Each structure stands twice: as C-alpha cells, then as structure tokens.
Amino acid sequence: MTQPVTIPLMSEEPVASVLRILQLTETGDDVFSANSLPQVRRVYGGQVIAQALLAGSATLEDDSRLPHSLHAYFLRGGDPSQPFSLEVERLRDGRSFSQRRITCRQNAREILAMVCSFQGAEQGIEFQDDAPEVPTPDELPSVFEIFRTMDHPAGKFLGKTTAFDVRHVQKDLYTQADPVQSPRQQLWMRPRHAIPASTPQALHRALLAYVIDQVMFEPAMRMTGLCWLTPGMSAASLDHAMWFHRDLDINEWLLFDGTCSDVNSGRVLSTTRVFDSSGSLVAEATQQGMMRVPMGAHRASGRWGFEVEGFGDGAVPAVGLA
User: Fold this and answer.
1) 309 versus 124: which is more confidently predicted?
2) Range of the domain at 33
3) Is residue 6 part of a domain?
4) Cα–Cα distance, 35 to 28 (Å, whole number)
C-alpha cells in the first residue's frame, strides 16, 4: 500500500475546494480514487493531470524525488459528477530517476494516460532563458475587476469560483477578441488565497500543472481573433507535456509567457514558460488542443466546449475551471 501526498486544509474558498479535490483516497496497491469540482460539464484537464501527478508521487519510496516532467494524452471527456480511479504502474526506479505510468479510468473507460518522471536535487552546470520584460502585477487589472463589470452571467459565476487571480499584460480574452492579433501573450497568476507554508513542493508543482491548462489556448485564440465567448467555439485539450526546472512557490506571482506556433486542421499548438517573480524559469509546458469555430456547413459540437449549465450556448472562459 502507498501513502498519498499530504494535502493541507484551509477554509478560504474557492482555493480550499481545489485542495480538497486534490486529496486522493487509496483504494488498493498503487490505486487511488478521486473526485472533480462540480463546475463544468466535463472534467477539467488540468485537474486530472494534477491528480495523476500526485498519484505517481505517492508511489515513490524516496520522497526527495520530485516530478520534473510529464507527458499526457486526454482520451475521453470525463463526467465531473462521478468519481474516477488513478492506477499507477511503477516503470522504473533508478539511481537518479523514477518513472511512473498513470491511467485514469471512469466507468472502466480510460480518460487520461500519462507518464511522468521524478528526480532528486542534483548539482551541475546551469543556464536558463531570460524572462520577458513586462509590467508588474500591481500595474495590471485583476481578473476579479473584469468579472465584476462583465455584462454576462459568467461574470458572477467566475467571480465566485475562480481560485487564481489572473492579470493579463495584453488585453484579456474573456468577452472580446484582441484587435492586435499576436501569437504571444504574458500574464501573471497566483492563488486567490495563499496555501499553507507547510505545503510540500510536490503539491506546489501539482498546483502549477493544475492551473497552467487554463491559459494554454489563449495565444492561439489571440492570434486568430477569438475570445472565450466567441459564438459556437469549442475547445478541448488533446495532449500535454510539462517540465519542472526548479522549485517554485505557487503563492507568489508567477509570470506565464505563452506562444502559439501553429493553427491548422482544427488543432492548435502552444508553449508556455513560467517564471517566478525573481525571473527564474521554474517550468514550461507545450500543449496541442482541438479548437473549432463554425465554418460553412461545419458546426462545432457544444459538448467539447467549456460550457456551464445555465449559460446557454456561449462558451465560458477557461479561467473559470480553476
């Protein structure tokens, strides 16, 4: 039997709800059960990646080894009203690295397949790319200011359920497209309430994996003149790779520097680098996603979108999933 990573308790919502759903229940040898936030029609991809990462972490004999990379495929959309299982296969425990394969199943159907690798601290040569020069978070509007002024039911919903404060350097994409169509964007992000100081580094990394999924589509949307409320738009993550370079503190402002490199065949490819407030490159992720808009006879399927009950056919910003 294994021991799930300790998840600290806190009372400040909605961050407390995010921590609660990251608490796994051990149900067998290297098998765990998990639940979802009951906010959307499909299980949020960042959530199940974070849960799979914590499931893999729970099977390590050496708790000094932390996740340094993950590669995941989203196979089916999960039902957030139903629990699911996380089955871990111990691929290898070497002198420096450990690898795990995690399969997430719901009603005997696979919804996620992921391989992740872990490593302990090691001395060696170092280099990192520089962080872009952008305004500080204090110079930018908070997402909560934007939600309060949104003339749309989503504004009230997101104001209550969004666990992370987001501050875009460029124009936000919640209700309108950016007239400056650029494949690059930057934004700052941190939790709405600080998580406890005793939180293990494995959970800090899982929370970053949890939240980064919500902004991976935005560089492609910005480049193609779309926003989260574009009529008929639908989107879904297909596969996701992430690398953790250094320890991070999820409580501090983190800078997300995103770039879209390709849009075609209903797919988009984007990469996001994450820097801490001192300019250290702590992580980066690359994701391919399905993104469709109505074109001619082709209609996007609403079941693939980020819709929330009660908001009709309009897509709801992915930030609401966090």
Assistant:
1) 124
2) 15-119
3) no
4) 17
